[in-house]
Design goal:
This protein is α+β, with helices and mostly antiparallel strands. 63% of the residues lie in helices and 13% in strands. It is built from six helices and three strands, in the order ααβααββαα. The protein has a three-stranded antiparallel β-sheet with strand order 1-3-2.
């Protein structure tokens, strides 16, 4: 992952509602959730949730699948993992103190 790619992902995550969406989808696991359920879970209007879901999807952090008239969203665990690896290994140069703090020995 390049610095530019990581910066785009961090930019997509730089909103409290988007972090709630991310947490909600991580908890939902591989089955994901429908957009309406996500909106309810994070306490947002459907249009506001769709706005944030689109930003996360455009960044590649969330996968979107259309099913008839609804859309199911799933977290892209590989992309999140890549961002975490970038932060720990590339950006922080594998700093032992940071890795220990994060439980990543």
């Amino acid at each position: 992952m390049t610095e530019t790619q990581a910066a785009l992902l961090f930019a997509a995550l730089s909103n409290a509602d988007r972090l709630l969406v991310l947490r909600t989808l991580v908890e939902a696991g591989p089955d994901g959730m429908k957009a309406g359920g996500i909106a309810t879970q994070i306490g947002a209007s459907p249009s506001r949730a769709s706005f944030h879901l689109a930003a996360l999807s455009d960044a590649g952090l969330v996968k979107r699948e259309r099913q008839s008239r609804s859309q199911t969203y799933r977290i892209d665990f590989d992309q999140i993992g890549g961002l975490m690896r970038f932060l720990l290994e590339d950006c922080c140069k594998g700093n032992a103190t940071l890795k220990t703090c994060c439980g990543s020995n």
